[in-house]
Amino acid sequence: MSVLDLTTLLVCVTAALAFVNARVLKLPASIGVTVGGLLVSLLLLALVGLQVPQALGAVELVRGIQFDDFVFEGVLSFLLFAGALGVNSHALWALRGQVVVFALLSTALSIGLVGGGLFALLTLFNLSVPLVYCLLFGALISPTDPVAVLGMLKQAKVPRRIETLVAGESLFNDGVGVVAFAVLAGIAAASGAHGPALSLGGVAAFFAQEALGGLVLGSGLGLLGYLALRAVDDFVVEVLVTLGLVLACTAVALHLHVSAPLAAVAAGLLVGSLTDRRPAALSSREKFDSFWHLTDELLNIFLFALLALEVVVVKFSGQALLLGVLSIPLVLVSRAVSVQVPFMLLGQRQGWLPFTRRLMIWGGLRGAISVALAFTVPPGPQRELFLVLTYAVVVFSIIVQGLTVGQLAARAGAALDTKVPD
């Protein structure tokens, strides 16, 4: 099947799922498309069990999709850039200390807690998986998906301080989680090949190269985009400049072996600071914002549809499903602890608003990034197991947390509406 045929099929399937959701399910777009895609996948699996030729062909077609490449070399940079554009960069700078603590410390705690908990859980089931691979699962499941939550926070009109903190933590949490996964994957590969070969200094240097290199690259390219946008007054040119900026961040980051997600976030914040400071700096601000909002929505829906369809390539077993169910409370408790500890360390002097903690914990949805990372785990028994665990956590997160976090955000917005200024 040609690239055109494959693209046409996937887009048409996504459009059909979105149409059914709009007419029948009436759920938030991302959640509805995911539910519809999962139902289609389950139907495909049932038909495969009956040896229906068309179903077997469809499954082989889905198997040929490089989901991780699609995420990391396709849509992720655009989604993070669009998310960063929507964040008030000056408000984020005022909360920089809190955001850095949550993005680094909270992510590290989550990786350690999930990895250690999974190692103990697998030991109870007499499964021998090295601790470094369990930590690898902790790294792939720790990045949160900011897209759906940010839209709900804006709709609920929670105070800007909460919205900025949740948005900043989610955006940088993604980049840090991906870098941590790369570091642990390198350690796992070195350990499996010829014993531990990476020193603490080597790990720190690798992390610095990926994380700091991505931020520096994104800042440099973002500054060029910032200067270019200041010099023009044409909507089409402004859109082309920002599209080129995102693609350049992704391509150059891959060649330099630095973090493309962090580069996209840094570039988006710099371009966003231009529109924050000078609302008239872009010729058609409303059209510019609408373009990136539409791009964000379309890519997000397409990504969640593909995420649901990829279920057909995962090999489920009774034991793996049970471990997946048990992984859900493990990830939730780890998220709660990893958020609570920074709150305690930073202290009450930060002036935390009510509902901040609850929104950060329950709003930490897992999504396509986690699944894409799971597909990059080296082939072997742990990869098949991690895919099942990841899908169990992601499906619960998207459907259960996704359907209820909006109500929590609405309660927060209503309770704080008359008490706390933006």
TrEMBL record:
It is a multi-pass membrane protein. It is found in: Cell membrane. Its main location: membrane. Keywords: Antiport, Cell membrane, Ion transport, Membrane, Sodium, Sodium transport, Transmembrane, Transmembrane helix, Transport. Residues 14-409 form the Cation/H+ exchanger transmembrane domain. The keyword NADP does not apply. The keyword Cell wall biogenesis/degradation does not apply. The chain crosses the membrane at residues 6-24, 31-50, 70-87, 99-124, 130-150, 171-191, 211-229, 236-254, 298-316, 322-347, 359-377, 389-410. Belongs to the monovalent cation:proton antiporter 1 (CPA1) transporter (TC 2.A.36) family. This is Cation:proton antiporter. It comes from Deinococcus oregonensis.
